[in-house]
Design brief:
Length: 288
Amino acid sequence: MSATDRFSQIDPPTDAVANRSNLAREAILLMAMSVVGAILEYPLALALKSIDRSEVARTLPFLIVTAALTGLIPAVLKSNARLGLPGAPIIAARIAGERATTSWRSIAAIALRYALYAALLGAAVLLVVIVPMMFLHPAGKPIQIPRSPMLNIAPGRIAGMGALVAIAAAVSEEIQFRLVLMAVFAWIVARISRADRPGKGALWIATILQAYAFGMLHLLPAAGPLIHHKLGLLIGGLLMPQTWEGVVFGRLYIKRGLEASILAHGMMDVGLFVLAALGMLQSHLGAG
């Protein structure tokens, strides 16, 4: 046996080594994006709202969740193909030095469409569920909503800082919920059903579960009395607009991948902040 033959038996195939290297690089990049997005999101949100900095401590549980979900990214990337999930196809192709099968321009168009779907669905939940609940208060009086500190902020700052918050949140939350939690729930459902890989029904269940977790994340900071009523808290998660927006982003992720869901999430949030800024500007002009 020649020296070349002996080394070929010891060394793993070049393609396998390259694939592991590419997965590692992709995992490192996505983990960095997840952590940096979360680290930027909360301070920017605090600066935008102009609230007391003592509330920074409230972000600690969410940063812990970020760390836990971010740590699962390497395992998720390895299992995505088996689960039938797309991962981040453009990022993966660039890291592998290959040409992506889709372009940013093509996914931007579908991302914009899904951003509109998510915004309309979230607005529908507010109008059909949340607003009537405010006026059907048991005491017979509408629930008084505290004046938001954002009402004292200049419209330009709302648009500018809000856009930065939206971008940071879109990156970190899509990685954590669509990339990671979708895979976790898809794996669990597949294991329960004893299937080799999740089917369409299982992926729908995973989509709803990760969206519900997404809604609960946004509910808990403002849950107030619901914290002490577990049933009310669980039902409240279903009534959050973010839950149903998460369903839309989840379906987009399954169809087009992480980059598309990040774009859609960012577009929707940036659009909402711009609309809020325009509304504030009109209010200021009217008051003047």
